Amino acid sequence: MINAISKSKIGEDVCLQLSLPNHKYFYLCDCGQASDLTIADVKNLNGLFMSHTHIDHFYNFDMLLRHQLPVTRQIVICGPKGIAKNVQAKLLAYNWDILLTEEQAANALSYQIREITEKGIFLYELHTPQWKLERKGKLKNEYLYENEVFKVKYAILNHNTPSIAYSFIEHSKISMKENCPLKAGEWIKLLKKAFQEKNNQQIINIGNESFEAKDLFQYLEEKQGFQVSFVMDHLACEENHQKIIQLCKNTDELYIEAYYLSEEIDLAIKNHHSTAFISGKIAKEAGAKKAFPIHFSRRHQSPENLKILLQEFEKGFSV
After folding, report:
1. Are residues 13 and 141 both part of a single domain?
2. What stretches of the chain show up as alpha helix (H) in DSSP?
């Protein structure tokens, strides 16, 4: 199960951390002010998923960098068009003359940037200490990001600037049904692999008998993995809403902006944001099992205004 926890206190900017049992790395969605984000969290960070680089979502990148310097691996950063130069500009703002020798730099922290555009996902790399932006072609994988425990899908939303929504999907779990009449053995691993690879003709040997995998698939059951979705700043419009609904369909948890009150709809449209009620309604239409509003206008940080925002969101989610 994917565990999501906000590292930002009420009144701070957005920073959502994702973790998984028996997986040593953490992942962040946006990096706004986050008082609860620890040095240990940052050192174990393996991926940063940026919605966009407006200052309230990106300015805490310097804190991440400060504590990632001892890390000797490549960290992935995903974001909208322009994210590669945004990250490089942060890195070049500092003087690196005494940080590393060339030999040390070869095994030091580096970043792989996955820049999401309408024309595909472009790859870049940045290495200590010159931080030269190296273009590495386009991503050819089916998913934006995938490791041994989860995969990531995305949608490009309109916030007057591109804003990326993400869905993190835990890999499904395949197990044997209790009514399987065959004796357990090593063949089960081969069968599960054949099922995952859709290899119907794979020969599975059980004792002195041989079977085609497709004839044994009846004894398997697949449980869908946990899904967490992250939808930040976006204009409340039909095009965005359809993208959100498709990306977040039946998600277990949806974290979404709820920036303005319903009475401020004109302001929301002007600033390319959503309202709490509309975000709750879209979360409901997407079939989200649980929905959490986590990004609010600074004008609504008082306990009284936050209570009204949450009430409007819940009203939309219960429609």
Report:
1. yes
2. 39-43, 55-58, 61-68, 83-92, 102-105, 187-196, 238-247, 265-270, 276-285, 303-317
